[in-house]
From TrEMBL:
One of its GO terms (molecular function) is dTDP-glucose 4,6-dehydratase activity. Residues 4-303 form the NAD(P)-binding domain. Its EC number is 4.2.1.46. It comes from Streptomyces nigra. It catalyses: dTDP-alpha-D-glucose = dTDP-4-dehydro-6-deoxy-alpha-D-glucose + H2O. Pfam families: GDP_Man_Dehyd (PF16363). This is dTDP-glucose 4,6-dehydratase. Belongs to the NAD(P)-dependent epimerase/dehydratase family. dTDP-glucose dehydratase subfamily. It is an enzyme of class 4 (lyase).
Amino acid sequence: MNLLVTGAAGFIGSAYVRALLARRSADAPHVTVLDKLTYAGSRDNLPADHPRLTFVRGDIRDAALVDKLMAEAGQVVHFAAESHVDRSITGAGDFVLTNVVGTQVLLDAALRHGVGPFVHISTDEVYGSLATGSAREDDPLRPSSPYSASKASADLLALSYHRTHGLDVRVTRCSNNYGPRQFPEKVIPRFVTRLLDGHPVPLYGDGRHVRDWLHVDDHCHGVELVRTRGRSGETYNIGGGTELSNKELTALLLDACGAGWDRVEHVEDRKGHDLRYSVDWTKARTELGYRPRRDFTTGLAETVAWYRENRAWWEPLTRRAGEEAGG
Ligand code: NAD
């Protein structure tokens, strides 16, 4: 079976593909990766050469290319997206083009060639901010940022292809991922790389915003369960089970990097910053046997150690980001 995976030069997609390629079983799929290699994608996140990997550099909006790849594919896992909320606040255009239009191009091609399951990777952010409790899959979508609005649009579009055309679409909505190879614009790698370099870290507002943390390997395991055992037309929440305020997370990261609170700069809050996300993942647990396996304390220590030991991976990225910002 040839599995088309979009966006797999990025953080989560590359972890998913590396796990698939590590499999030795006879049913391990051939993987075709389609990735544009935007600022967030690194070809180095995947093996340079592997008998079961084909890497194609291209845009998910390129209908002719997508049609050709879909004709050769049996199933799809769709990670490709513009993924950083702050960037969507300064410019929403690429978020609509990639996350919404790109998803539609993929869905149309999947429909033409009868490809399924089509697993669409989404986010807990589509449910919006929750003061208490946890969102279930059939709760209303109340996205706040242009990023989460573009993801919610893509979810609805994907599910519409199931309802209208009967395409085998499955949607996953996960909480905040952490782990190695996350682009150093997201809070954990940003804070760790800055602390390791002796720089201050910017904490938004009063730091009371709460996120649920999910190790990227647990997320990938959940996605694989949805691909192999999930039901057509269904949405599955994939949670991590470790809720922390940004202030609590900052304390853990300072401690892991041997730094004190004098390194924290309180900066103006993000516009429209959602206070808390939380998903109820009972459905994935009861239907698919999903549960997060990675303990957060160990996972975080391993992640910090990875950034400590892999400066060659992130230094060019932070340098380039600094240059782009005129720094
Ligand atoms: P990422 O930014 O690290 O990677 C995105 C990848 O998509 C990159 O390799 C990039 O080159 C590629 N890409 C972007 N636009 C493209 C286009 N037009 N055509 C082809 N490729 C393109 O993102 P990530 O953190 O790995 O997130 C993967 C998915 O998971 C996204 O759909 C995101 O919305 C979702 N998600 C992420 C998190 C998280 O905590 N990181 C949480 C919830 C959901």
